[in-house]
Cell division ATP-binding protein FtsE
Amino acid sequence: MSKHSVIDFNNVTVTYDRQTVLEKVNFTLGNGEFAYLIGQTGAGKSSFLRLIYRDLVPDTGHVQVADYNVTTMSKKEVPYLRRRLGIVFQDFQLLPDRTVYENVAFSMQVTGAKNSYIKQRVLEVLGMVGLSHKRKNMPNDLSGGEKQRVVIARSLANEPRILLADEPTGNLDPEASASIMELLERINNRGMAVLMVTHDYDTVKQYPYRTLKLKNGRISEVNAKEL
Ligand SMILES: Nc1ncnc2c1ncn2[C@@H]1O[C@H](COP(=O)(O)OP(=O)(O)OP(=O)(O)O)[C@@H](O)[C@H]1O
């Protein structure tokens, strides 16, 4: 893998039963790059992301993420790979019976970080997403946009190199979506690569970055203006 890329797919094929979902896909996400992944329902976007965090192994081809050869790595190494990734998915919900602070701290405690560092880092990432003042609140006291910002803060806690975001603006009103996009841009400007799966074409047009479309097992670059 080139030192300029953080994700590399080389001729990746994924087949479920007899259905080929990805066929000899090549893809590179540059260090610090922002890119969108789009495609109709069932096009293979979730499968694509699952390959990156090693929830799925390709039938053929290679996947490299940060310094890890994801295709050949041992199971023992998977948690270390995942710590290099910030994951913002709709089904990675917040724990409803823990405060905002505790939700973010929890993701660091499992890595064995020191308490003094956890405290400092949780306050730092909550500050980054503009929610320090809500740290003692429970998730259910927050709006949808604020909850999503806590999920983003949690994903940043372990200082990942890559942020994977699956529909981070789904179900949010335009104002909350804009605040999430501005936050993702700020994070990206600090040097983190961002790969965002979305159906929200208005957002793609408003915040244009390289846009890749999955269709019939293939990936191609599209012009956001033509969406
Ligand atoms: N574990 C599995 N076993 C069999 N088929 C699967 C499995 N996972 C996904 N598929 C099929 O592979 C295809 C791609 O699924 P995938 O979830 O990757 O698409 P997607 O683009 O993320 O869709 P959506 O936008 O609806 O989430 C679909 O036809 C799906 O039914």
Remarks:
- DSSP finds seven helices and ten strands in the chain.
- Residues 1-84+197-227 form a domain with the Rossmann fold fold (CATH 3.40.50.300).
- The longest helix spans residues 174-189.
